[in-house]
Amino acid sequence: MNAQTLEQLVMLWMVNDIPARMVFAGKRWRVTDMPTRIRDSIWSVPIEKPHPLYGWRFQGTDDAGESYVFDVYKGERGWPVHNTYA
Asked: What highest taxon heads this organism's lineage (predicted)?
């Protein structure tokens, strides 16, 4: 599995507080697995206290059928993608 570290904001839509779809790199992505909530212990970005860092790991599939695993976290300005896995 290849990992790529990014820090690019995405538009993320939630259903019942769980990621359902997003726009990233000019493409629409559907969440095609059960997202996993991840906490601050695994992140390699600075944690802004007193707000603990949290995010999600999920598989996203675009309209062409290409799939990646994304790590996104809640930042001050939105939801940056921290890692993608092919």
From this structure: Bacteria
